[in-house]
Amino acid sequence: MSATTDALEREVAAIRALPADADMRTEARRNRHFDRILQLIAPRIRHFTRAYGLTDMADDARQACAIGVHRAICDYDPERARFTTFVNWQLRCELQALRHRVRLDSRDSAKRVGARTVSLDALLADDAERTPFEIEDDLAQSRVEAMVATRIAREAFDAMLERYEDRMRERACREIAKDTLRKRETMPGTVHPDELAAVERDLARERAIVTRYVFAESDDAKFDADLPLDNEKQRQISRRILRNLRAQVDGAALN
């Protein structure tokens, strides 16, 4: 353990030991301990300032880091980590927030659309001399949440379909093996490759039908007019598969 780490622990412990409702003398002691902490971590503040590309506004970066140190002192738990580790994350957080306020967002996804991350204070600014940022699209958040929910639902649905198809594939292979055994077309217990290909085609077609049925945006879009099956047949296939998926989920819940 380095001397700097030990010194930081002593200064933080001294600050936390001071009473909250202090007089001016106690407040002066708190400020002296705080200044020592800033002196001890000054090298890493300069390092992080360079790492986040804020050397042209070093004063603002130091003020942001001072806020981070204050928060670190308030939230520090000696049982979970050393202060020298905990304060690093607070410094990174404040400098990242500062960079987002004064720079274009550096993430690749933001660069492609020219996005800029700003604070809520900037959005709600009352100062007449400041021009507050305007939200381009009020419905963006709801659309993103809807897309995320749909994606999660699709992934869960695909996982259930895969388990269902495994059972159907196994059942079909057993039936085909019995038929071929009676006809003596193949070796006992085996399935001809053409029969397997037909099973996979049927499963793929049913997957497409039920997926379209479940995630269609309107009733008219539930059915594929290009299929040789009419709408009623597609509805029956979808409902049969959905009943099986529901039984599958109920069985898993019971187990």
How do the helices and strands line up, and which of them pair or pack?
Blueprint: H1 3-17, H2 24-40, H3 42-51, H4 58-75, H5 83-102, H6 108-113, H7 120-123, H8 140-183, H9 193-215, H10 231-254
Helix pairs in contact: 1-2, 3-5, 4-5, 8-9, 9-10
Kindly describe this structure.
With 255 residues, the protein is mainly alpha-helical. The chain has two domains: 121 residues, no CATH class; 115 residues, no CATH class. Helix content is 71%, strand content 0%. It is elongated and about 95 Å long.
Radius of gyration: 32 Å
Using the alpha-carbon principal axes, give the shape: elongated
Termini distance? 52 Å
The helical percent reads over 70%
Strand content: under 5%
Oligomer: single chain
Structural class: mainly alpha
Number of helices: 10
Q: Output mean pLDDT.
A: 80
How would you characterize the largest beta sheet?
A: none
Written as H for each helix and E for each strand, in order along the chain, the element string is HHHHHHHHHH
